[in-house]
Design goal:
- The chain is built from 4 helices and 7 strands; from the N terminus they run E-H-E-H-E-E-H-H-E-E-E.
- The radius of gyration is 14 Å and the shape is globular.
- The longest helix has 12 residues.
- It binds adenosine-5'-diphosphate (ADP) and magnesium ion.
Length: 148
């Protein structure tokens, strides 16, 4: 299993990592985000949305209570949060995951709650806390995707 690891030492560094990561994303990409509450999943999505040209990145906040949010960026960004869902896989299908992927990029928080409902070819991003303001992010590209 190939992958890469990044360390960030502040929220701003995680935002910046998200902006850079955005350059590697294309229409149809699904990004599975996992890590505990407060890991920085939402912040990373905010960086990605900014990197894809979302004018006001403050629009990006946790979609926990609405399940999915769409941000108008160069590529539409769909931000999904499976936290609290009892039937995460069923909800994902109902939300129209396929249509979202046909339209833009889909980033899924708490993806580990319904991995079977996500495309097999997906980015996997795992975030762990390594200090009060320190995070370790592992990024694994979809199979066959060349990495810079
Ligand atoms: N290096 C870091 N990267 C990301 N967030 C950090 C970092 N250091 C501290 N934080 C804080 O951790 C919290 C992450 O929140 P959020 O992105 O909503 O996490 P999640 O969506 O994983 O629950 C924020 O309050 C942020 O300020
Ligand atoms: Mg979140």
């Amino acid at each position: 299993m190939s992958g890469e690891t990044h360390e960030t030492r502040s929220p701003d560094e995680t935002l910046a990592l998200g902006r850079r990561f955005a350059e590697r994303l294309a229409r149809g990409d699904c990004v599975a985000l996992s890590g505990p509450l407060g890991a920085g999943k939402t912040l990373l999505v905010r960086g990605v949305a900014a990197g894809l040209g979302l004018a006001d990145e403050r629009l990006v906040s946790s979609p926990t209570f609405v399940i999915v949010r769409e941000y108008p960026a160069r590529l539409p960004v769909y931000h999904v949060d499976l936290y609290r869902l009892t039937d995460a896989a069923g909800e994902l299908a109902e939300l129209g995951l396929d249509e979202m992927l046909a339209d833009g990029v889909v980033l899924v928080e708490w993806a580990d709650r319904a991995p079977e409902a996500l495309p097999a070819r997906r980015w996997e991003v795992g975030i762990t806390l390594t200090g009060p303001e320190a995070r370790r992010l592992s990024i694994r590209a979809p199979d066959g995707r060349s990495r810079p």
